């Protein structure tokens, strides 16, 4: 008997080509991109929070230094410097934080433009638990607007806090910086809802 296998006895299933995996639908790919974008947004939100919190520390440091400068006894001294080196340093650091916030908004706006293009294809397909891409876009655009308004005020504080002429004005700058994050409850709620919709933790 020949040792050569009988070709006729080879199972046909062994000769069949493996089935090509089904390609993911455009909707599935689009939804994945939306999830990636929302994940990146949550990271931007965390960066925004950390940056503004660091700004509060700088504002408090500026307040402590400036209080000493504004002290009447200190001002009577001939060698009194209204802008000591450490004050200038903290003011410069605060200005750097503002540029970081500008970058955060720029990144968010770029993301929004990319999602707008995707929206042309996906329309109002559900991409989260219940939210459509259109609703996600509305939320991100609203947050961007709130952040921009907040940034405009933080810029003014950064430009003027070091030039405060009295304790009351100084305290106003510091208190305003601290409270700005709490003045946009709608934006904060939208962030929390996005976190829930896409199961992305905020902490």
Describe this structure in words.
- With 203 residues, this protein is mainly alpha-helical.
- The protein has one domain: Four Helix Bundle (Hemerythrin (Met), subunit A).
- The protein is built from seven helices and no strands.
- It has helices at 12-15, 26-70, 72-75, 85-122, 133-160, 167-179, 185-197.
- The longest helix has 45 residues, at 26-70.
- Residues 10-26 have a biased composition (Polar residues).
- Residues 1-29 are annotated as: Disordered.
Keywords:
about 200 residues, mainly alpha, Four Helix Bundle (Hemerythrin (Met), subunit A), 7 helices, about 70% helix, disordered N terminus
What's the total count of β strands? 0
N-to-C order of helices and strands: HHHHHHH
User: Which word captures the global form?
Assistant: elongated
Helix content range: over 70%
Biased composition (Polar residues): 10-26
Region (Disordered): 1-29
